[in-house]
């Protein structure tokens, strides 16, 4: 890396040569961008020397916290022993074998095999091909439709974005691809509250949308239902407590595969190893990525039930699919070191029993702020719903997203990374966050809400 490049010069070069993901480049001023230069624990430092609390764990992934030299060392050692080999054509290597055994020990009893890729998106591509192949191998090639949900996030590839339910993503590039059907999401604050149902009734209604879709499409044509246990990028949408039990009931009576996209919920985010554990779900397939390596290196995968694995082990069956960098040895070494840390330090149990409840209590108290309509949190991820009038929670800000952006910008200025989804603020810090750091995070959030509320009123937005 070059040294002695000024912060401003870095920004100029970034502006000139770098196309960013999910970014309105026309609106992004040269000096408006931040160059993150260093990180340790829950802290980031930008190229201007500001210290910022990483309330998003990178992009929901740095579960073990930044700067873990143990992971760096494990990767270095693996790189010098075997920096690359593939797992096609009858070969394997020690780190992928060790990691797969480790994962089988963490997953529900009926899930014991893993197929790897490099990200959550490519894992969901694998899943789409895999579920269709599975049914074809069972003599049911017409069982192809995958039911998903509006406002779900399953990645950015053609299959990932199609499985996902993001309107703006579907508006570009001719998506979704055929064979994906989206039902309504169980979003109480954003949608259910506007109906004449109460929260429990709304949860049942949203679950039964799945049943209605299956009936409409025909069970014989439906391959699978895919869902995040809690929608992450959609806005940390925690379903009503009636939702998952009813979905489970529906799935139990149907011959349809259930895919739990655990890319965010997995590896401790909810205080359990997987979101499926938190809701007692029994998926046939699980998508993993993000917290698998805590983002130290890219690795994703598909966890496969014994029932599906059995079909893939039949004579003369070959799934014609694979990525060059699937189960890259260095990435597997990073995952092993990361999981070792999560286990040794009991970080998952700590989210469930200690730091989670500690954070949730203070987060909930933010509801007393005049701009906060709801503060929700499960494990260590949460959302604040911003509203113009605390006395009428059904009212929303005009020009959706504007207040969220104002609030996010204040948050950054107050030394805290939060993400804005529409007009809600999202938090998902490293699982290693201390009580003292939670206190700092809450203090920054309060100041941010005050600053944003002032602006919002000054601009006549509320
Ligand atoms: C981030 C995410 C993905 C996509 O993972 P990438 O590694 O960004 O491709 C898929 N599903 C969920 C639930 C995610 O949050």
TrEMBL record:
InterPro entries for this protein: Aminotrans_3, Aminotrans_3_PPA_site, PyrdxlP-dep_Trfase, PyrdxlP-dep_Trfase_major, PyrdxlP-dep_Trfase_small
One Gene Ontology term of the molecular function aspect: pyridoxal phosphate binding
Keywords: Aminotransferase, Pyridoxal phosphate, Transferase
Gene Ontology, cellular component aspect: cytosol
SUPFAM superfamilies, per the entry: PLP-dependent transferases (SSF53383)
Keyword presence, Transferase: yes
Cofactor(s) the protein requires to work: pyridoxal 5'-phosphate
Highest rank taxon of the organism: Bacteria
Family note: Belongs to the class-III pyridoxal-phosphate-dependent aminotransferase family.
Protein name: Putrescine aminotransferase
Organism per entry: Hoeflea halophila
